């Protein structure tokens, strides 16, 4: 980090928030806000936090991320995912600070079949994606363009928190022991992104004073089925599982959920990688690092 920076981090107990705290660069003074310190559904509290701390950056990693539950709680999802970034941006416009708003591949409808570029039209297909898209728009509307950065990412997982990787490690163990198969959706394609890689991209964006819209994911492409198979293989290779369960590919129609998900949501990260000076890593090698980290937690 070039100069001393004061950063107000939201969602500091979430999976990305924890990775950001663990990788804080020298020179950053971090004001870490979890749910207990700052309720993101309270726009007044978000604005007051900016006025109180006068951060150089708000790094808004907090979000209402329960994609299915959001279908039944659109107001709360909207307050957290759109209201908070709007309130931060409005307050930062007055204080002179900048906003890094973390966003999602779910702002796209998933119908185009090739990677989404940052400037493409948003067309979310569920409540969560709509609330995140509105959060991006409110943030960008309230701040001068050079003081607002939206960083979209996809399929986030890490060694802590609630995520697909940890769920699959547990299910592989249970199903393999029972001699049963695991059924996993094979017709949704995206790219898994490890929290350590995403945290590095966030810190690089602050260091480079990035603005505009950035896409960041690990490299490659996968279906949830591919991801589940790799989790089983690497879980065995790293000694976390005695054996992996057989993984059976199923379709989205076989596994109905309250929220629809984009069937194809790869993000075109080609402009971001040189802009942030970060080399892409294939998702499978990032997954191996996460699984090693899970193993070292005991
Ligand atoms: N997870 C993914 O697959 C994914 C994919 C693309 C983009 N993203 C984006 O990446 C960012 C980080 O997500 P993540 O994966 O780290 O999610 P996460 O683990 O669910 O973390 C989100 C954090 O926000 C907190 N939060 C929720 N509502 C709040 C409220 N009203 N007040 C204060 N805190 C609140 C949560 O607290 P509780 O745990 O107490 O609810 C949690 O600590 C988010 O912007 C998300 O939209 C995530």
Please give a quick description of this structure.
With 298 residues, the protein is of the alpha/beta class. It is built from nine helices and twelve strands.
Could you explain how this protein is built, in words?
The protein has 9 helices and 12 strands. The strands form 4 sheets. It has a 6-stranded parallel sheet with strand order 2-1-3-4-5-10, sandwiched between helices. A two-stranded parallel sheet has the order 6-9. It has a two-stranded parallel sheet with strand order 7-12. It has a domain at 5-154 and 194-217: Rossmann fold (3-Layer(aba) Sandwich), CATH 3.40.50.720. The mean pLDDT is 96. It has 298 residues and is an alpha/beta fold. Bound molecules: NADP nicotinamide-adenine-dinucleotide phosphate (NAP).
Topology summary:
Elements: E1 5-10, H1 15-22, E2 28-33, H2 43-53, E3 57-60, H3 74-95, E4 98-104, H4 127-142, E5 148-153, E6 156-157, H5 164-178, E7 182-185, E8 189-190, E9 193-194, H6 195-207, E10 212-215, E11 222-223, H7 224-237, E12 247-250, H8 272-276, H9 283-296
Parallel strand pairs: 1-2, 1-3, 3-4, 4-5, 5-10, 6-9, 7-12
Antiparallel strand pairs: 8-11
NADP nicotinamide-adenine-dinucleotide phosphate is lined by residues 11, 13-17, 35, 38-41, 61-65, 80, 102, 104, 132, 153-156, 161.
